[in-house]
Amino acid sequence: MNPIDENPTKLDRLGIWVSSLCALHCLALPVLVPLLPLIGSSFFAQVWFERTILTFSMLLGAVALLSGALRYHGKYYPLVLLFSGGAIYWNKDILGHHYEPFTIAFGALLIVAGHWVNMRLYRQCKCCKKTVFSEHLSTELK
């Protein structure tokens, strides 16, 4: 048996960690930017680096949430939270430079909320180990 099948929340927990680290990186960056030349790590301040981390976080989140929706609980609204948060995060400067920390925090909060809701749905739906189209959905459709 696959380790993910034994504990399907592993991907959600990893997604929460990656999203939180990404948010921490973006929020701490203005404080650390003056120190970056001293350590020779100016690539941390590059937009491509931030978007690479965000893309990895979104791909990991999509796998975790689609896995939950298709294999366990059949609910897709956590994906809406994930992709809304990702879109806000990607366009973090849409409200201007002064509000960027707030849009980053809000986008990260939506991404983490998507993972958290997915984990809650896993815990509520113990009957759906086989597929979505098993006992769970057949009782809902009646």
Estimated share of beta-strand residues: under 5%
Could you name the ranges where pLDDT drops below 50 across 5 or more consecutive residues? 131-135
Radius of gyration: 18 Å
Q: What is the makeup of the main sheet? A: none
| Helical content band | over 70%
Structural class: mainly alpha
- Calculate the mean pLDDT score and round it: 76
Task: List how many beta strands DSSP finds.
Answer: 0
Q: Which word captures the global form?
A: elongated
End-to-end gap: 32 Å
Overview features:
142 residues; mainly alpha; 7 helices
Structural write-up:
The structure is a single chain. It is built from seven helices and no strands. It has helices at residues 3-6, 9-32, 36-39, 47-73, 77-90, 100-124, 135-140. Helix 4 runs parallel beside helix 6 (100-124).
